[in-house]
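Look at a sample.

——
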Amino acid sequence: MSSGVKMTKQRTLGIAYGEQKSVDALSDEVAHWLAAGDLPAQLVTGHPLIDTEHRFLINAIANLRRICLDQVALKSCIACGKPMQERCEGNLIGLLGDIFSFILDHFKNEESIMRDSMLVIVDREVCQAHMEDHAEIAAKVQEIVSALDSQHVVSRIRELDALLSRWVTNHVVMHDLLLSRWVSRDDSLLRRI
């Protein structure tokens, strides 16, 4: 099933220790990171605010995976019974609210860093691609919210899981690490503040 988000398919990421892995292979590692409850070394940007916000994202994925008894095998929620359906739907709605609030703050923070560090002036294309990715992620979350119904919550959980996992394994590496490197360079205006 396609998630409708263009940001990850068939890209290759450089991992800190030099090994090349596809984004899809990295998605398998998300479960390991969730167990540890922290960002893996290759996703640490070094920017305290961004890293704290990314830890929230890892925790949101862990919480999402606790909502359904078996998000992988279940095709729909019909067999779960009404009380379980209502519990799962309520938990997903609450998490979606948290995620949407987080998205608004996190993207605003990153875009403010882009402006304050002058990256938006120095390399407008990089910033534009980063902000377009933000818009695609937010639009996909809104699409998931719009498609909610009590008999197909498990489908929305899978879609949200795929989106958040790709966000961690792709957007953070492609955009956020670049932004952090820009901000942490020796002549950065933000290092003097």
Q: What stands out?
A: Residues 45-69+80-185 form a domain with the Four Helix Bundle (Hemerythrin (Met), subunit A) fold (CATH 1.20.120). The chain has six helices and two strands. The helical segments are 23-36, 48-65, 82-116, 119-122, 124-146, 153-184.
